[in-house]
Amino acid sequence: MNAPAHGPLAGKIAYVTGGSRGIGRACAIAFAEAGADVAISHLDDEAEARTLVQAVTARGRRAFQMAADAGDVSQINAFIAAAEAALGPCDILLNNAGINLRTPFGQISEAEFDRMLNIHLKGTFFTAQAVYPGMVARGGGRIINIASQLGLKGSAGIVTYCAAKAGIIGFTRALAHEAGPLGVLVNAIAPGPIETDLTRSRGAEWKAEIESRLPLRRMGRVEEIAATAVLLAGPGGSYYCGACLSPNGGDIMH
């Protein structure tokens, strides 16, 4: 039996896509620590998802996990329906699922383009659409979309990724205009370079080069992105509408 909820998200239910690792996992745990019950989707990452469920329940909150491809609308809808049946309707949606493929522009295939845009932009769009009517009917909700500072500045070799993340920022701002008057706050987070399994796989030389460019001289931690997500999800985020917060170590200053 779960303990009484305490914290800024007490009594709330959060759904996190791509929640088994990295930023999504840190946000799921932070939401639980702030008092929310948490449902996550993942892409066939069952072992990591089970350990996350244990981490959430160890904090006295309810948890649910399910494999679902964020680029497939039927699987998105199945996850939303199953999460609602297990925990209840969504108060906080964190659209985090994503991939990163590095290919020179002239070699990008149609299949790679479609996969990148499907996972990032299409997935974000239709996951938000799946929970949106319920939020409107209940008079409120929070939708938080994970973008990237590369959607603001661009970078060579990852054109499709940058385009997808820029699209998420544009989608966030457009939906915020429509959703804000109905009580649904839509915002984005555009992290800079963050220590994750993916970035660690790039090696020490790549990391040193990235860190040398940053005013803070270090990569960020997933917990620092999770803190921003909790802000936007909770009472402290009540006047953010269409914002794109970018914890990036000074990579972009705006």
TrEMBL record:
Record key words, sorted: Oxidoreductase
PROSITE patterns associated with the record: ADH_SHORT (PS00061)
GO biological process: monocarboxylic acid metabolic process
InterPro entries in UniProt: NAD(P)-bd_dom_sf, Sc_DH/Rdtase_CS, SDR, SDR_fam
Single GO term (MF): 3-oxoacyl-[acyl-carrier-protein] reductase (NADPH) activity
Enzyme Commission designation: 1.1.1.100
Keyword set includes Oxidoreductase: yes
Pfam families xref list: adh_short
Matching Gene3D superfamilies: NAD(P)-binding Rossmann-like Domain
SUPFAM superfamilies per record: NAD(P)-binding Rossmann-fold domains
The family this protein is said to belong to: Belongs to the short-chain dehydrogenases/reductases (SDR) family.
Name recorded for this polypeptide: 3-oxoacyl-[acyl-carrier protein] reductase
UniProt organism field: Roseococcus suduntuyensis
